[in-house]
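Reminder: ligand-aware prediction takes two inputs, not one.
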Amino acid sequence: MRLAAPAVEVLDQTMLPQREVWLRIETVAAMCEAIAALRVRGAPLLGICGAAGMALAGEERGTTDGALRAAAEEISATRPTAVELSWGARVAMHAALAEADEPGARRARLWQFAGDHMERRKREDLALARHGAALLPEGAAVLTHCNTGALATGGIGTALGVIRVAHAEGRLAHCYATETRPLLQGARLTAWELARAGIPASLLPDTAAAALIASGRIQAVITGADRIAMNGDSANKIGTYGLAVVAARHGVPFYIAAPWTTIDAGCDSGREIPIEFRPDEEVGGFGGQRWSPEGLGAYNPAFDVTPGELVSAIITEAGVARAPYGSSLAELVAQP
Ligand code: MRU
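Here is what comes back for the chain with MRU:
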C-alpha cells in the first residue's frame, strides 16, 4: 500500500499473479469495497487499511467526532474476524480525536498515524521473523497455509516472514504451501511470493496436507492468525484447525506467527471470536466461472478457530509465547 494523500494506492490482490494492478482509492466506500472483495487482505495489512481508511474519511467526510466514529464503525464491520481492521480504525480515530477540534490538525494526524503504523509493521515483521526462524531446526521443511507474506502485512510477512528469514539464514530446506481454497491465496499469492524470493517450494491441494504431515517430511506447520484470544485460541484461514489437529496427531509442532495487534485482550476464548462467512459463489466457482449447479448453496466460513492446546507456540515481534497462554499472552500485551 502507498499513502498518497488525499488518496491511497493498493495492489489489487484479486488480479495476482497474472496482473499487477494498482488501484487509487479516494473514499471510505471504495476502501470498504476493496476490503470486502479481498483486493486488500491479510490481517496486518487490514490494520493498515483501517488506519488509512480513517485518513480517507477525514478528507471525504470531515473530522467531527460523529463523522470519524461513523467511519470507524463502517470500516470495522467490513470484515469481522480480523481484529486488526477495527484496531487500526479505532486507534487512528482516537489519535485524531485527541487533537484540537480543527480539521487540518485532525486530518494531518490521521495520515501521520497511518504512515507510522506502516513503518512500525515493517520493523515488527522483521523482529517476529527472527524469533520464529530460531525455532526451526536446521534443514527444516515447513508447511504453511493461506498467504502471510509481504502482501498480507506490508512488511516481510508473519509466517512467510519466518520462512523467508530461515531461508536467508540457510536453515530452510523446503516450503510446502497449500493452495487454500476457495480463494486460492496460497496458489496465487504465496506461490508468487515464494517464487520471487527464490525459496524452494511446492504447492499442494489442501486435501493433501494431512498425508504430507503424516509422511514425516515436514518439521513444522506455521501459519498466521486473524485474532488470538487470551487463552491462545487462534482464528485463521479456514482449514488451519484441521492442520493443527493432524500436526498434533503426528507430533509435528504447530506455530502461529502474528503481531501483538492480533492478540485481542478483550476476548477470553475462541468462542467469542466472530467468524466471517462469505458468499456461496466463492465455493461454486472461481474468477467468474461457475462449475457447480446454479442455486446450490454452500458452507463457506472464511476462518476457523484452532484451540490454544494445539498451538505449540505463538510467535510475535515481542517474543515467543507458550502455554499456559493465559499468563504468557497477558505478559506480551502488557509490554509497552
Ligand atoms: O481471507 P484472508 O485472505 O484475508 O485470510 C488471511 C489469513 O487467514 C491469514 O493467514 C491471516 O490474515 C494472517 S496474514 C499475515
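The chain is about 45% helix and 15% strand. The pocket of MRU is lined by residues 38, 41-44, 82, 146, 148, 152-153, 158, 185, 223-226, 236-237, 302 (CB under 6 Å). We will return to this case in the review session.
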